[in-house]
Amino acid sequence: FSVGLGLRHLFTKTMASTMKLKNAKDGEVVTRFPPEASGFIHIGHTKAALVNYILAQQYKGKMILRFDDTNCDKEKHEYEEAILQDLKTLGIKWDIGPTYTSDYFPQMLEMAEKMIHEDKAYCDDTPKEEMAKHRFDGTSTLCRSNSLEQNLKNWEEMKKASPEGLRFCLRAKLSVDNPNKALRDPVIYRCNLTPHPRHGDKYKVYPTYDFACPIVDSVEGVTHALRTSEYNDRNDQYKWMIKALGLRAPSLDDFSRLNMEYTVMSKRKLTEFVNTGKVWGWDDPRMPTARGLLRRGVHVQALWEFVKVQGMSKVSNTMEWEKIWNLNKKIIDPIAPRYTAMDQFRIPTTMKGVDAVSRQQALLHKKNPDIGSKEVTYGAKL
């Protein structure tokens, strides 16, 4: 299923003509693909990876592969290895990495404390349901007016994950009543006692994706952070974090999230299917994972072509599987060898007028002799 260098170059060139980046200069573009190692990549992740890879190639730049490992309840080393292997199978190469968000935990802790000192963050122990109601109603909790000393004290307890610290989370002080609810004092740090896959028990507090992503994008030199349109409401939050921390701002751009008809794309639900035995595994041909699709007979080249057709479109819609099958047929029809197979018979038959068993050579593909030939056996008994 590997893509030949010539074909990959052809598709890279064709796809590039349908995708453009704002303020992009040849040789300076840096994109990133940041999967979470909490499952195998599916066709939606494949689209995101290809878009970042193709654009980096188009502008003679680089692509970073970064594992977003901030949620130690979900990450597993086996998923990480699977993602690396699947990307290679798909013909996607990264120039930098793999890196890990957790590589920057020390810097992020310092930045969180800086925000506390500058009154841009505060510790909040409001019960979860009550906090959700405050956010919905656009009102502040009592903790929002805590003193610097109180916030620093609670933050130290959080870092130790003491019984008192476990009650708190750290929230950024953006707004309490912004029409965009993503800007209503989002949580940027939580306590978690689950050992981290790479750091064990070293850390007891972990950043949220919305806090970590803009920091690591800036520090790693990402010039164009490409996100699916589901993050549109969070773009202003991303920009606020960059400004509040005084970091270099990557350019944000988005493309539509890939939805397939009659298909579950939630990684949580796909994991449940695997764990409960509803499917054979992540490579079950009924799964929308890259491995499942390849096992079902989809050619890598068809996936590339499918993504090329969509490009950087921002229009959200549900795609039909028939589009992939049609693309796949055009690709495999000229190269697929033809074989004949018969199911098991219950009634044997003998045909009259047929001589002894004979064998003849026949082409595996009538229109493509280069594929080779096969031996066909003729006889009286079926």
From TrEMBL:
Residues 28-333 form the Glutamyl/glutaminyl-tRNA synthetase class Ib catalytic domain. Keywords: Aminoacyl-tRNA synthetase, ATP-binding, Ligase, Nucleotide-binding, Protein biosynthesis. It catalyses: tRNA(Glu) + L-glutamate + ATP = L-glutamyl-tRNA(Glu) + AMP + diphosphate. It is found in: Cytoplasm. GO terms for biological process: glutamyl-tRNA aminoacylation. It comes from the Eukaryota. One of its GO terms (molecular function) is ATP binding. GO terms for cellular component: cytosol; methionyl glutamyl tRNA synthetase complex. Gene3D superfamilies: HUPs. Its main location: cytoplasm. Belongs to the class-I aminoacyl-tRNA synthetase family. Glutamate--tRNA ligase type 2 subfamily. This is Glutamyl-tRNA synthetase.
